[in-house]
DNA sequence: GTAATAGTGTCTCTCAGACACTATTCT
DNA sequence: AGAATAGTGTCTGAGAGACACTATTAC
């Protein structure tokens, strides 16, 4: 049987119905706090509960589907403006039978790192979407609580060996802003002086713009130099988290 | 509409047909070489070409489906004997439209680390399966070449910060055997003395059995002490690869 | 002036890597 | 005996973290 004959005889209906969705763990930092985008479900199941934004995959790549969902729920134009700087990567796929009571749903979860985005417009499609502090998000629909937890852990780990912290800030940023990203994601303050020296010592992490902020900090201090993201894809050597000895085993 | 009414009105047929499969990048070390399990496809599309073992997901978790496929293709009993020591983890999900010419297929790829397994029996179900050096595997069906490449890179990275090298060796092993794993996966020889000291200095990586091998090496040398895997889930500090400065950017 | 912050200097401790060396075992 | 390997000792350089210090700016 050649390939054409095979295709003609092939009936997709022979296979059990499975739905494929994408869910997005979209993270940003607002007011110095790590926040995640959640939507309030209007329909059963889990009507009224908070959930990760997501939906069915259409005739598109999985990456495109995730980006589309993110655009829909934030009410922003995909690929332009604030959304063009979003870092999007696949997290993990969740497909336990029974995770959705309606039918077998296999969900490809994505992790998104975004600079501070505007609040979803109350009037738009994204009416039900809200940014919520990640630490206090609880009682999510489906298995989204677990997905969020694994997304957060991935985010924390990624900051160590990748330059993705820059995805949380604007195109130009100060070292202090970058440090605030690490502090928010890791939930720990970092020593300002050592952090400063370390960031500048990693090749390709940041590059100087030659300019400084227009004014100093709100409560004093000199003007800070501005940097933009460098061309490194991995940090070498990495910025390791303060050791959490007990989480090793 | 409450949840029960919703379920009753719900028709899976309303959604476009998508098939979900698992594909497994099963790695082992045989004769000091990193090898991957491949199957020869008997049917179109890509008849006669080599592919990763895999198949449709049934009424089971994704992890169970991957383990089942691995068991089927190796001809071994799942969960017993050699297969019980296999490390299995999700790699990434591939779902580009057109990656399978028959229909939309979303494939959840898994990565498996196995100690040296017996050759698949020529007479069994796994007739078409062969262990092939990973470096020379080429011209795979579908997008399996890309999946294999990403699996290999994940495996190389995992050895740095996880104790999974022990999944490639037997329950008791010498430091030299462990070093051979690293050398095979990274494709680089490692300094015996430094490797030895480093492995023993990482808490929880290996623990001594108090015994030694029955005899020395094939070409001389003292008897080596035997170790088993420790209880660490991450290596801290990690065993870093010899720096590959050019792959950073 | 006072407080806060940006950025740099310095010291110590740890660890990776290079190299050397001894002890043990096989052929 | 000769060769190969297991395991340890030692030195050096790089880097992380603690601490101190200066310079600059807001209020």
UniProtKB/TrEMBL annotation, chains A, B:
The keyword Transport does not apply. SUPFAM superfamilies: Nudix (SSF55811), Winged helix' DNA-binding domain (SSF46785). Pfam families: NUDIX, WHD_NrtR. Gene3D superfamilies: Nucleoside Triphosphate Pyrophosphohydrolase, Winged helix-like DNA-binding domain superfamily/Winged helix DNA-binding domain. Keywords: Hydrolase. GO terms for molecular function: hydrolase activity. InterPro entries: NUDIX_hydrolase-like_dom_sf, NUDIX_hydrolase_CS, NUDIX_hydrolase_dom, WH-like_DNA-bd_sf, WH_DNA-bd_sf, WHD_NrtR. Residues 19-154 form the Nudix hydrolase domain. It comes from the Bacteria. This is 8-oxo-dGTP diphosphatase.
